[in-house]
Write a structure and sequence with these properties.
There is one protein chain. The protein is mainly α. It has 18 helices and no strands.
Amino acid sequence: MQEKKYGVLSLPVLVAALGYFVDIYDLLLFSIIRIPSLKSFGLNDDQIAKDGLFIINIQMLGLLVGGILWGVLGDKKGRLRVLYASIILYSIGNIANGFVQTVDQYAWIRFITGIGLAGELGAGITLVTELLPKEKRGIGTSMVAGIGLTGAVFAFFLKEVFVQPDNTGWRICYFIGGGLGFILLVLRVGVLESSMFKNIQHAKVSKGNFFMLFTNARRLRKYLLAIFIGLPNWYVIGILITFSKEFGSKMNVQGTVDPGKSVMYSYAAISVGDILIGFVSNWLKSRKKALYIFYVLTAIGVIWFFNLQGASVSELYLACALLGFGTGMWAIFVTMAAEQFGTNIRATVATTVPNMVRGSLALVSILFTWLQSQTGDYLKAGWITGVVVLAIAVLSAVYSEETFHKDLNYLEGITEPVAA
């Protein structure tokens, strides 16, 4: 029986987009309210910078753990079940975040929330790539990411409404995030499971075997390259944007830098970039060529960012916007990862790859911190880190498979195609 194919504005795509909207809202909320929330604990500026980096790294570690957990379960139990379970976990986690009183409590709850958040994007992208015809799946996943990424903009505006000058009110933003998650859970009810997954549900084939990625040299190479391609995203967001206040201070930027506003400008631009890259990919009939264009834009944004000595705070926000637009390749990079592997481990790959990238922020942070200790220069450490990250990403894209025309109806490790 021929599987039904959906359009780019069909219910699965729209619900996946709303799911990613809530995911990004929750994921970036700490970066947006980092300063007022930690100030309410009585921390000074140095402690806020140090403990803020610690908390965001712990959150990303949770995403790394959750990526493996939900990816394996997505291939074993189905894409929708993972979405339901992950939504429940991160919604409860966000509500709990509204009650934390110490940095350690904050970090542990962000870790748990990170585990929950890890399941949303990969399972949603896998579902959309399997439900849409191949000539539309790039645009479909770009729509998911483009709409979803505006969740960060929404989080910033809620911060502006609820966070007070005395650093109270930030807890309400977490409560709202938890409530949005439970509303999303209700919307998920009308979405159908992928027929590709149903076709292999009872097949005697290894499903969701994470270790399959490491027992075959070709699969391991594809998997590592898929991860390295996305490294610039979280270098930009986790280092440059999140700590734009600290970078602005070192560069004597005129005016007070609000990291929340930096996140808002960058994510508004990321949203536009992520939608546009799907159309660029379709126009060029290539995922990789579209990536190269956006890497160049990211490099220009990094150069501009580190040449803002004495500039106005408005110019810094514009640089953040260009950085965001350049890293608006999240959807294509995750789509490429999903397209490179068979149905029996596709969710495992599509869920672990973006969360491995998010988790790699800890390694990027270690490099950044080490370079600070070696050079004694915060700015030099920042741009050298960027050069290393971008070089790795570009080389990984060069050696990756072009997947634009690839048929996804096959099993990993099986030579015969799956029956339609």
